[in-house]
Amino acid sequence: MAFHHVAYGTKDLAATHAFYTRRMGFRLVKVVVAPTPGDQGWAKHAFYDTGDGQMIAFWDLHDPLIGDDWKADHAKSLGVPEWVNHVAFDAPSLDDLHARRRIWQENGITVLEVDHEWCTSIYTTDPNGLLVEFCCTTRAFTAEEIELANRLIADPSPPLETLGTASVHKPTKTGVAA
User: Fold this and answer.
1) 160 and 114, same structural domain?
2) Residues 58, 14: one domain?
3) What pLDDT score does 163 carry?
4) Which tens digits make up the pLDDT trace of 107-146?
5) Which of 23, 28, 52, 127 could be disulfide-bonded to 15 (CB atoms 3.0-4.6 Å)?
6) 170: domain range?
7) CATH number of 156's domain
8) Which of 7, 12, 10 is closest to 73 using CA atoms?
9) What is the pTM of this model?
10) Measured between alpha carbons, how far is residue 13 from residues 16, 59, 61, 172 in Å?
11) What is the Cα–Cα distance from 87 to 132, expressed in whole angstroms?
């Protein structure tokens, strides 16, 4: 089943909006402004179309009961590296993935690209410290891989796999405004 939307809090809605429209290529489709539970404050809930009717949304919170002492990074503040909690968006082809990488580079972003053998991914971090990824599945899973996955899920000491090939792509432009 597909996602309708995934929602996160943001400390800086303007920077988040610029990132998700200019750098990710998503389209703002809806903003809901409403009181927060408890009627002490209000919030904006901004929805961005990521494709196929699926969305990512961000909460811009203005509520004294919530306050300002909360973290938006979803990983480091929880004590795990940023690569643990992340969001991966579909790139339908390698051409699309490479076009997205060029957009990031043209917007001053250093891009990590990893060929995982069954998919290729590019990674960067949004203004909230959330790791985002575009991923292109490059081949179908074999029956043997699916069978192995079902064995590995319950294995308390599974064998390690070789990591994919990584490359770093430097920005082609620097000093790009948000």
Assistant:
1) yes
2) yes
3) 84
4) 999 999 999 999 999 999 999 999 999 999 999 999 999 9
5) 127
6) 71-178
7) 3.10.180
8) 10
9) 0.90
10) 5, 8, 10, 26
11) 5
Kindly tell me the number of DSSP H helices and DSSP E strands found in the chain: 3, 9
Integer Cα distance of 41 and 12 in angstroms: 17
Residue 147 banded pLDDT, cuts 50, 70, 90: very high
> Where are the alpha helices (H) located in the chain, listed in sequence order?
13-18, 94-106, 143-152
- The C-alpha atoms of residue 92 and residue 143 are separated, in whole angstroms, by 22
pLDDT digits (tens, 9 = 90+) for 26-65: 999 999 999 999 889 999 999 999 998 899 999 999 999 9
Specify whether the CB–CB gap between 71 and 130 falls below 8 A: no
Among residues 50, 67, 84, the one where a domain terminates is: 67
- The strands making up 86-90's β-sheet, listed across from edge to edge, are 86-90, 131-137, 119-125, 111-115, 165-169
Q: By three-state DSSP, how is residue 111 classified?
A: strand
CA dist., res. 68 & res. 53, Å (int): 32
DSSP 77: G
